[in-house]
Structure prediction request, 483 residues.
Amino acid sequence: MTNLQDSLLELIRRTSAEIPDDVHRAILNALEQEKKGTIAESAMKIIDQNIALAKNKSQPICQDTGSILFYVDCPANFDQLTFADTAREAVKLATKKGYLRQNSVDSLTGRNDGTNVGPGSPTLHFHQHRSPEITVRLMLKGGGCENVGAQYSLPDERLKANRDLDGCRKAILDAVVQAQGKGCGPGVLGICIGGDRATGYEFSKQQLLRPLDDRNPDPKLQELEDDIVQTANKLGIGPMGFGGKTTLLGAKIGVLNRLPASYFVSISYMCWAFRRQGVVLDSNGNIQRWLY
Amino acid sequence: MIQLTTPVSEAAIRALKVGDEVAITGTLFTGRDAVHKYLHEGGKLPEGVNLKDGILYHCGPVVVKAENGDWKCVAAGPTTSIREEPYQAQVIRDFGLRGVIGKGGMGDRTLKACQEHGCVYLHAVGGAAQVLAACITRVRNVYMMEQFGAPEAIWEFEVKDFPAVVTIDSHGRSLHREVLAASQAELAKHL
Prediction:
């Protein structure tokens, strides 16, 4: 994998500077929907200009270049340790080049060594599969949207939410109202029903790897995804919480088994500056194609 | 679009209302979590930082050093302001701020301080780091870099036509409070 570091550096650069096509289409659609002359429309126009400017200048779309989350699908016997070392080097280099902000802080001392490499940064998820293909997906998730994520334990008396899909719907819509514009809406929700507290949040983030225009294989969940977006967009929260028509660009729901005693609904909010990209690599680590 | 030039007079601030779009020209100082906590605990502003009649920007920019040694800001959108709610009212009062730029809005204590001391909360578009960095014509200085690190340091920016929306004015109105109440009422119809 002689070219792996260069490829990962390019993956980081492009993820930080270029919004994926599926998200861009949804943003352009949202811009069209907003009433002319409103502050919501102004915000969407600035967002649209920002997307173009970041791409042209090859600079971060948002200064919070976020948690660095790699999702690697690889064959059995793939050398994960070497990949992890190379990914850390690529992150350091990307930080030097300004593709990433110096964004990783020692939680106890408050010290920021400026490399973005430390405990938990970057985060690497490896999944083995029975194919020779190596795919690397990268998500850069900013703190503003991460902070408005929420986890509900059903039943929830305040929300009158029981342990069923209607209860999940109440929890998810509550999270939308609680988030208001604080997560840099219009946003996208990744949702997990079930799991434990850790796997629930983790799986909710993985839902954000799905293209916005895909279909949920489970028709009931597809229906709930559509309903969440339509209902959220009636609430008038709008871009940045300024009031307006588009509060959500999408919602993606996955399900994990749970314990009889637990029923978690975990919600990860992704801002409009939805930075995710992915590549398929050949055996030398060259980029064969882009995934989004 | 209403033009605001720093230093800003109290009269110019009192004339602003929720929903007004402004374009700011002049000097902005950045300050976020570490700076607010430091000032709250009685820390002194470093020499050269003057917030009187000024505008504070909740921002942790990406700034790189050019080959000639000058700083260059390559990304500078707002960060979430509500984290500064425990400190902001005091900082507005003690340092004579006329404006605070951030995103996501602030709470009742800040709203009250805006009313009492003649200040506004200005919402910039979150995530629009490039459009906003393009309004920064010069990075004049940086303070407390060693202590707080680059994102948390106090940066002194010269800006031209920096766009923002008044979402908390000095007359007791908050767009955030209004949208929250309206969206809660609307949600109740759909449950």
Q: What stands out?
A: Chain A has a mean pLDDT of 97. Residues 144-270 of chain A form one domain. Chain A has two domains: 4-15+61-142+275-290, 144-270.
